[in-house]
Specification:
- Helix content is 79%, strand content 0%.
- The radius of gyration is 32 Å and the shape is elongated.
- Helix 6 packs antiparallel against helix 7 and helix 30 runs antiparallel to helix 31.
- The chain has 703 residues and is mainly α.
- The chain has a domain of 105 residues: Tetratricopeptide repeat domain (Serine Threonine Protein Phosphatase 5, Tetratricopeptide repeat, Alpha Horseshoe).
- InterPro entries: TPR-like_helical_dom_sf, TPR_rpt.
Amino acid sequence: MQQAVDLTPDGHADKAAQLTSLGGALLHRFEHLGELGDIEYACQIRQRAVDLTPDGHASKAARLSNLGVTLKGRFDCLGELEDIEHAIQVSQQGVDLTPDGHADKAGQLSNLGGALRGRFEHLGKLRDITQAIQVSQQAVDLTPDGHVFKAAWLSNLGRALQCQFERLGELGDIEHAIQVMQQAVDLTPDGHADKAAWLASLGGAMLRQFEHCGDLEDLKYAIQVMQHAVNLTPNGYADKATQLSNLGTALQCRFECLGEMGDIEHAIQVMQQAVDLTPDGHADKAAHLSNLGGALQCQFERLGELGDIEHAIQVLQQGVDLTPDDHALKATWLTNLGGALLCRFERLGELRDIEHAIQVSQQAVDLTPDGHASKAVQLANLGAVLLCRFEYQGELGGLQHAIQVMQQAVNLTPDGHASKAARLSNLGVALKGRFDRLGELADIEHAIQVRQKAMDLTPDGHTDKATRLSNLGAVLQCRFECLGGLGDIEHAISVMQQAVVLTPDGHAATATRLTRLGGALLCRFEHLGELGEIEHAIQVTQQAVDLTPDGHADKSLRLANLGGALQNRFDCLGELEDIEHAIQVKQQVVDLTPDSHVFKAARLTNLGAALHGRFEYLGELRDIEHGIQVMQQAVDLTPDDHADKAALHSNLGRALQCRFEHLGELGDIEHAIWVMQQAVDLTPDSHASKITWLSNLWGALLR
């Protein structure tokens, strides 16, 4: 072909036809091998073919349409907006020049639809996908059954419908997309060069329907057809990388549902292959990197291996850096990066990670227009990182912002959506955080309501079932601590125990779930005094500490819980070894907790309580002196509107009263009465602790 072109002068009547044919051959080779030089040359010579074809020539429309297809191919590879703009322009010219009833009309409409869809995927403008569906449907309607290109036009229509579904979230769009894509597959015989492409598209649509509706049969079928597509695509073909990456995404989804390690390992393997097969500069490189990063993060969340999250952040940052701000998927890549940074923050506690996560998550929200189907995802993720920063720093404005955006995310997520349960559960976390801070009963009631709904929406066998059971238990325990209803703590322990049983050995969340169970058992022990409860609480809390590596952000929390349980057993049995051990671990906790941390005050007061306990046992004055010192620090660090302020005052008052009883200093009992009175004044009459604070005050007054 090249020889024929070279031997034919520009003015020859066959020159344009020869250029068009050579361009088609180059495009075909590019689609199989992905060599950039082929698509560059194809665009160049097809443009020459158009330029050599006079207006009014019978082949002008076809050559314009062919040029549009070639320009879109280069756009798909390089992501240059100029190419897709030019592709739409010449494809539209081709359609306009072709009379209705012409045999080429359907193909030219379908090509125009593909170009419009390409621009929509880059810029996200709704009118492009609306028009793409319209012209793609026209192409299908004009093509009789049995036509050699019927399957291609159906597949193009399906992809446009899927794009609109991803933008608007209308279930009818994805159902229609699957219907026409299945038709395309059924019309294409095995061995046909396009069979793999149609299967891959169908698998992608089935995966989107699964993500929306949560039906595991959809996911199973998606993996089946995606694997079939990969198997049919020879090594070296340009589509191989995308098919591998999409298969990896489906395998990751199944891992997130069922928890089978083989799925996430397979997902990472095929996604890494996809990245390795994609040259730098290719428009899909960022997508493949982002998918790989998500899978590595998923494995980190299961196994807790720091190398996985480090690798995830590295490849996700690469994906963001490769994507221009006007790209429709920029927000998605930013959100994914924010999620990975949040994961590393939760593991290491480095403040710069959470600040970076908030920055990129807010950018993702700002880049996503209202009405976009991904808006809820971006808001939910922003809420999660804002909540995490609040849990670390205790800044109330950040928590209020987190609740606001999480509630927006829930409101934007239709009932029946696969992510509804997760978004409800996360909103429950934020509401509990506000309850812990402000003590408003309405927040804990709302938190229980949304977490119960989240659990009810999560089917048995789902990998998140254990998480949601554990989360529900935590808010039930909170209400018990506020109102004292025994049914709440019984229910909390029951669901937390279920969560532990459902968690496989080696799971990164095991320690968290054991810690929560230990806290609930301790809570019931404090209410009922059953010795078996405190023994069980210490056992599971020690397990949690042993499973937590040094340097882990939650190490101090788990040590704090162990210290509390040991002190409770000391209070019950009077074994000196328990209080010595309790003080040792509580001092570790204080040392590990920075002054800016939201729990610093609570951890100081817990250390003070343990020192107070040892003073009452041994009578060593330095213990009560140290105890009062750290309790005063705790009070000073706690804002007046904090729900724990009253308890901290009461604890300090009891320690001061104890020193008064030992030394007889009048200033101590006066100070004790003053801080105990504050505890009473800060506590509403309906609170379960009001009677305790009054009793403590009355005891001090009697002294």
